Amino acid sequence: MAPTDAILLRDATPADAAAISALVSALTQRWIAPDCDEDGIASLLALMTPEQVQRRIDEGHRNVVAECEGRIVGVAVLRLPSHLYHLFVADDMQRRGLARALCNAATAAADPAVPITVNAARHAQETYRRLGFVATGPELHESGLRFVPMRWTRR
């Protein structure tokens, strides 16, 4: 385990697309897929290809990565203006405050008067609660995916 101070938060570049895709795809398969329908997970994974990751970077979405010893170990993506699209941390790097740091970095440029929204997968709901998000409705099952809509109003 690397010390937390060895972790660099930085803006993602197109050169990071493959590594980001591999990280989010693997974590999605492990943590999100078991709660989804086959078609839902297939459509979700199709949005996580290197090409789709690079498209979001090129379109100017706020993409922040956590890097440790040359390896991408976390990512947060804010789809402008205020929807947290991804927040993933590698299993071996969890419980170090990386999710909070990534969330804060990705949302720093957003208008503080506008709530940040997220569609939280089942396993991630407690993490989002600890970050200050609150559920805005019940669990939904749409397009083969299960999630709880949540909102964070920053102070």
What is the string of helix and strand elements? Answer: EHHHEEEHEHEEE
Distance between the termini: 34 Å
What portion of the residues fall into strands of 2 or more residues?
25-35%
- Helix percent band: 25-40%
**Unreliable runs:** none
Strand order of the largest sheet: 1-2-3-4
Tell me, what's the shape? globular
Number of strands: 8
Radius of gyration: 15 Å
Structure, briefly:
The protein has 155 residues and is of the alpha+beta class. Helix content is 33%, strand content 30%. The N and C termini lie far apart (34 Å).
Task: Explain what you see.
It is built from five helices and eight strands. The chain has 155 residues and is of the alpha+beta class. Strands 1-2-3-4 form a four-stranded antiparallel sheet, sandwiched between helices. Helix 1 (17-32) crosses helix 3. It is globular, with a radius of gyration of 15 Å.
